[in-house]
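Supplementary Text 2. Reproducibility record for the structural model of the 231-residue chain.

All settings were left at their defaults, and a single model was retained for analysis rather than an ensemble. We include the record here because the model underlies the residue-level annotations in Supplementary Table 4.
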Amino acid sequence: MKVAVFGGTGFLGRRIVERLLDKGFEVRAVSRQARRVTGSEAKAPEQVKADILDRSSIGPAIAGSDAVVNAVSLYVEHGGLTFERMHVTAAADLASAARQAGVERLVHISGIGADPRSTSRYIKARGRGEDAVRNSFPDTIVLRSAVMIGPDDAFLTTLVRLVRLLPVYPLFGQGATRLQPVYVGDVAEAVSRLLADPSQDVSTFEVGGPRILRYRELVREIARRFGAHPI
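Retained model, structure tokens:
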């Protein structure tokens, strides 16, 4: 099976690429910048430069693929790049192109709690994106992930740095937000299993870590492990 992974050089995407290669898939890593993805000469992905925000570049990038994975993400809006544009419009464009290209399977990475009625711009866009993708590619498999952690992540690495640096650590809302951190490699494994088993009759999956923590508990655990004592 040939799989095109959009966001194939990103935090999650490159792990998906590596996992699929290890399992014998033929992989095409699609990204805006042609950066190398880890792999041996015997197991190296095809590198394709394309931009999910540019409709004209999507078709050629997925041509000949049996499956497509959308692992593109945006956590901070800047300039004209909004959650709506990335997670709704661009995601739907990719799904539409996949359907027109005769792609058999589409895995769309979303987030736990995605809800088109949410007051959060990010969560709302994630929810609207799921609906838009399914309107374009009805058999889409949606994989909702909890916050992902791992080497060079944007969440835990920053949190550790701030806890070690700041004498006082701000906890908005008393740090009551619940999190279920999941190792990024486990999310990549979930994607590979969904692609390997075409018999799945469930269209939405959620993946999280083994523990549910309040944000303040996570901060305290990090502080304890690093010998920091923020107030």
